[in-house]
Design goal:
The structure is a homohexamer of 246-residue chains.
Chain A lengths: L19 E5 L7 E7 L2 E11 L12 E8 L11 H4 L4 H15 L4 H4 L2 E11 L4 H22 L12 E9 L2 E4 L3 H4 L4 E8 L4 E8 L6 H29 L1
Parallel strand pairs in A: 4-5
Antiparallel strand pairs in A: 1-2, 2-3, 3-5, 6-7, 6-8, 8-9
């Protein structure tokens, strides 16, 4: 779409994801645990399944899924102060954990989950762009593994996870549409889009933001094409990780 | 797109906005003040222009635009506790004020603004759905009026506002795509989208969320069409309000 | 009492109130809603009636009345930071909302109210002096309207409001006693008094403060005379607003 | 004023103060330290003199006086949670420390104090009613002693304290006006008044509150008479304490 | 152990405690109240006995003992900001109150206490070093007195306090081991140790910290000898205070 | 010391450490990064070196070393709420981070460090007992690696780290002294001791706590012997990790 294409420092093609690795069972305490690595970005995702639901849902027979997101102070190039020390959760964190929660709730059958709450903790060990989309992809895998176990243990008859979701980012940098932005690229992007998609190609969340200038709808379509390509690859890796977790 | 269309309690057609009214100069203290009414939703928007910018921007010669959003406790049908009493700003508030801020920054020439900070306070007096999009539309108008004044006063040579932005919501309720959801409709929506667009048709923010189930891309296109129609109407009202503010 | 009388910028006589307007039903969500305007000061008052009382009153068969006070950031000439952003309610706010609450509790028959809590939210849209006394006058009217409705709806047999209260301020500026201080006058006052009075002339709250130097008791008597005059006018307006609310 | 007088458990006459004791130099760290005992009520008052003033007063050549008030958890019959544990200062504390601060500022010549801040810490060791008025009386004495020292040390040419202030409470219990309410009396009072007065009889603060029902102006006059009588006694004790502190 | 011994400003021998005084019943509200003075250090200790235990202990038939520690702002030479004003309890305070709580729990028979919670409030009125060890010694005495009363009142059959604990500090200053450090000595100490010991000589807490350089084990033994000597003296004073409290 | 020795679930001898592994450079952002694994306990330690020191040390020419400690919510068998969500850092966290900070400051030459601040972030990824001692051992290694780099980069002439410190825990379980307690053992321990020691055998911190009953001094000596044995092994592993980090 642009005459002169932006050259990616990593040598990646515009529509190429960074190397992705999903390690199931990275820690052993949670019901479901996954370390997701997307390039240098590393997010540890843990699924906790608790009995009961928040007060406003009690006696509905339905479950609840929520997420929390955090970043280690030195996940970033310069140190970021802890939110616990500052005494409050920041706006960016709130925004991200609400996004993760909504993304997962869209694919869970709350009736099938029953009055249980699943909390997805997504903690960024190293941040190089795309932490929120990596968190969604990883959290969904951790949730899938936790459900798998509950079924195996006979607690649930069938997994309440109707299908998997995965997410990635796409951006426009110097006029070039690029899939899966690394931090360096993200900081220069004119437009930034996060897309969350299910296995059957349904859209769960589309968030496109003009960082500096508005963009035409045609560009949005192209970005969505790129994102879908990347998400297809992620969904395959999620399936593989679920199998490895047995 | 659906066989049997959802009937709106208000008698509106699916692609019809609620009545919209913009009152410039509703209060007299701020540099720019607008009360926006969209149906029963009422948001008071105030633009404050202060000398100086946040520390990380100092000596850049560039300005900054930010927003804060609040809701009076009894803007809603049942009373909502004050965030000041709870001692912290909630996630929803954080998410909304970040959205408003980003939307406006995308159309402001920060170089032309110079080292000034514009704070847009958006306070909901009455809430009947669509408060965040009404806030964007109203805040942009308040900002435009404040800029107009700074130009008239000779403080600025030309308005740093490159063009206006306005926003509305679109949703899918019982399979029918509906423009500008009222609270009652919003609470039943399967999909909810907020779209922020400029006068030249550029997209600034697109946020589409599947509340219950994923949606196909074609549906997204239809929702964008509806939103563009509504936003065209809002932009005309903004221009009129600016003129009335003289 | 002084040889040369202080000239009020508004041209008002020393014992003259600013124009006062009470708009019943300004918003439609609360059980009782009143916008009170005293000169440029505007306070939106909302009465919320909830079932139940605080823990320490449970099973007493008695009700409770409390108030919260807030100010929009740009109600003032220069912007004031939100208390929600600062993470705590300030001392001035605490002092004011305690004053409003006490003033109203003095005229409510808690036995007749039954185990219900009435919360009066007083939010200042524009501040030009006298916001706390305007809040008391407006809140009492909102409470009266809410009680009227509960009686009409058959929920209560008779209104638990024994009589109305209203409040105003009086001050001494350059030796002259002045009724109903506007902000500009208030900032120069040597003495500042707030008085809350009932329809039968009983005192509910008297708060007189020497801002710069102590004052003799005779001066206090004069200030009380002025205040009573103003409050009589306010009480008549409250009755009219109640009737208009039907 | 009432036919049958209320009998005070202490055997005091209606216009009789509890035994009062002021111990100067109770602790040795502060510039001025006083333990005030009014009956069983005990408040430790400490005056700290620091160089500099709050930002908004800088380079005005004028000083500032402020107060903080606290209560040990077990100053009361049943334990009260610490405000530090609850993470915020309560409304009652805010109200009291603002009252103490205003009372003292009314008698200090800020020009003579120069760019210094005096902080009066008033900590209640035991509470049996009247802690806020005891705090004012004690804090003024601690301030006077601190000023005395600054003059003796040659830091100040003359004491910036123009005259002393003292405070007491008066209430109406079962129709009888009573001076200096103990906790038991206070909890039954229909009306409660705090009065702050200077040595030359000037009023600094008058706060009268109808706890249950409004009261006539004549009653207010009687309460003011009682309070003045008590304050005269307190002022004499303050002078004696100042002398003992040398 | 060193050639040239450090000379203590107070003229004390290296293994000599400061004068210690325990005043039982210093305030009259708490179930047990003790003012402990160790040199210029003064800590007011209050034991509150409440029905019930924290949620996680309910229905265990066992009691709980906890402590809170505070310091008046002007207990110190220069004023320290209130933790209530700063909105949070600091790390030092947390560390100290945890230490006090653990020390007392080690000597209480929780079964004999039954489902009651004892809160020990330790508030420093004046600080000259050793406030945490004085707090432990004083709190244990207040607890002992409260238990004595519960037994006398017939609420408890026997005191749940198995034996007394007391605590003191030892340090190394300029190479000399010193018992019971005053503030001036503490601020120069190379090593600082707090030791909590029971009447039968058992150790409850040993906390030794190298402030500037590591120390050999032999030195630790010598410090423990000194501490035991001091604690023996404290235990005798505690017994005397208990008897005086009757 | 006991007739019948406690059998460790892991099959370890009483004086045997769990397998320990130190991975230098586990993350790449910090100046020094180490993942320490002690049995199932895993702590990620990051050293951040910043220019400047806290205000009270400015212009002293000396540096500062501090630590922060956190735990991922699902590091534990049941989920622990985030301190950022609760809005404050808990007492246990405060206690631990103060211990880590003191332990490291005892071995750093602050003059040689110059006006720089080193922050050691210790985040527990998985917790199975001994997280605070693992954090000290890991943090010291991360600090050593960061210093090594500053020397190599020529920023510092020599490492300000005078010698290494390492730490372990020892406890008494059913009368048996055990080195390096796992969570299961720790929860049953009668006595718990943490010991921090330098390479030349100097003690930096000794913290011994009787969880249930006081213990004799002889037992303390035995525990110190065990701890020294374990620490010797840790110090060797630290040296190896430093070499691997080059």
């Amino acid at each position: 779409m642009t005459e002169k294409e932006f050259f990616r420092a990593s040598g990646r093609r515009p529509d190429e994801m960074r190397p992705v690795k999903l390690t199931a069972g990275y820690t052993s305490m949670p019901e479901g645990s996954v370390l997701i690595e997307v390039g240098h970005t590393r997010v540890l995702c843990a699924a906790t399944v608790e009995q009961g639901v928040p007060g406003w849902m009690r006696n509905s027979g339905r479950g609840w899924v929520t997420a929390e997101y955090g970043m280690l102070p030195r996940a970033t190039l310069t140190r970021t102060a802890r939110e616990s020390e500052r005494g409050k959760v920041g706006g960016r964190t709130h925004e991200i954990q609400r996004l993760i929660g909504r993304s997962l709730r869209a694919v869970v059958d709350m009736q099938a989950l029953g009055e249980r709450t699943v909390i997805l903790d997504c903690d960024v060990l190293q941040a190089d762009g795309g932490t929120r989309t990596a968190a969604i992809t990883g959290a969904c895998t951790a949730l899938a593994i936790a459900c798998q176990r509950l079924v195996k243990a006979g607690t649930l008859k069938a997994s309440p996870l109707r299908q998997l979701v995965a997410a990635t980012s796409v951006g426009i940098v110097e006029g070039t549409t690029l899939l899966d932005l690394a931090y360096e690229e993200d900081s220069q992007a004119e437009v930034d889009m996060n897309l969350v998609m299910t296995e059957d190609g349904g859209l769960v969340e589309v968030q496109a933001t003009a960082e500096r200038q508005a963009f035409p709808r045609a560009r949005m379509m192209e970005m969505m094409d790129y994102a879908e390509k990347g998400i297809r690859e992620l969904l395959a890796l999620q399936r593989a990780a679920m199998e490895s977790a047995g």
